[in-house]
Amino acid sequence: MNSRFNTPQEEFWAGKFGDAYISRNDSESLLASNIAFFAKVFSSLDKIPLTFLEIGANIGMNVKALQKLAPEAVFTGIEINRQACEVLSKTGCEIIESSIVDAVTPKKFDLVFSKGVMIHLMQDQLPLTYKKMYEWSTRFILIAEYYNPTPVSIPYRGNDDRLFKRDFAGEFLDLFPDVVLRDYGFLYHRGTYPQDDINWFLLEKTSL
After folding, report:
1. Quick one: which of 156, 192, 149, 171 has its CA closest to 39?
2. Domain range annotation of the chain
3. Strand duo 164-165 + 152-153: pairing
4. pLDDT tens, 126-137?
5. CATH T-level assignment (fold) for domain 8-205
6. What are the residues facing 42 on neighbouring strands?
7. Is the pTM higher than 0.90?
8. Is residue 76 a contact partner of residue 85, using CB atoms and an 8 Å limit?
9. What is the SS3 assignment for 178?
10. Cα–chain-centroid distance for residue 113?
11. Per-residue pLDDT tens digits for 90-114
C-alpha cells in the first residue's frame, strides 16, 4: 500500500476505481434527485444553512444541487481523489484534498454532511470521523448512508471489504449526548427522484 494512505480503502478511492466513479456519477438525473433530496431535508428548517462542509465531495454533485437551493451559500469539500478535486474546483467549492481522517480545517460550518461516503470507511476510522464532523459543525450534521441495525460488510462491484452498512447516526448520537435527531427519511431507488436506497438522518447540536 502507498504510504500516502492509511488504509486500502483510501488507496482504492484515490486511484483508478475512484477515477471511474467520477464518470458514473455525473448526470442530470442525479443532480435532479439530489436537489429533491436536499429540499426534503431542509423542509423541517426555518432557513437553509449558509456554510457547508461535505465529507467526500467527489466531483460536486451535492454541491451543485445545494447551489440551486442556496445560491448564496459557501461550500467546502474534503476529497481524496485528485481527478475529482480538479472537477470539484469548477463549482467554486473550497477543496481540502485529503483523506477524511487526515483532513484539517480551522473553520466551522452550519452543516457538515456525509452522503454515501462513510459506508466506505473502515470501522476503526469512524470514531475520529464522527468526532471531526461534530467539532466542525456549529449546529447541524447530516448523515445519508446505507443503514443496518448491526454492522455488516457487503460486496461492492466485485470487491470485498469496500462497503459497510451500519447504524452510523445511532453511533453518532451515542457518542455526543448534546446531539438530537431532528428529522430522518428513506430514499428509494424507484422513487420519483431516485436515490440508492439510503437512509438520511438530520442531527442537531443543542449546546450552541
Report:
1. 192
2. 8-205
3. antiparallel
4. 999 999 999 999
5. Rossmann fold (3.40.50)
6. none
7. no
8. no
9. coil
10. 5
11. 999 999 999 999 999 999 999 999 9
